[in-house]
Amino acid sequence: MSEVELARARLRWRARRGLLENDLILTRFLDQYEEQLSDEDV
Q1: Domain total for the chain?
Q2: DSSP state of 18
Q3: Which terminal residue of the chain has fewer beta carbons within 10 Å of its beta carbon, N or C?
Q4: What is the pTM of this model?
Q5: Residue 41 lies in a domain
Q6: What 8-state DSSP symbol labels residue 15?
Q7: pLDDT at residue 6 tops 90
Q8: pLDDT at residue 30 greater than cutoff 80
Q9: How far apart are CA 33 and CA 23, in angstroms?
Q10: Please, what is the average pLDDT of the chain?
Q11: How far apart are CA 34 and CA 41, in angstroms?
Q12: Inter-helix orientation angle 20-33/3-14, to 10°
């Protein structure tokens, strides 16, 4: 796994906050926009 892939995986993990509603919102955001985020954004 490259550093960028690892950073993206960490971002996805950190987006989880334990509240289902927040998990759903942030996961959907990442599903839709993850590829558009620059390496610097991640």
Answers
A1: 1
A2: S
A3: N
A4: 0.54
A5: no
A6: T
A7: yes
A8: yes
A9: 15
A10: 87
A11: 10
A12: 150
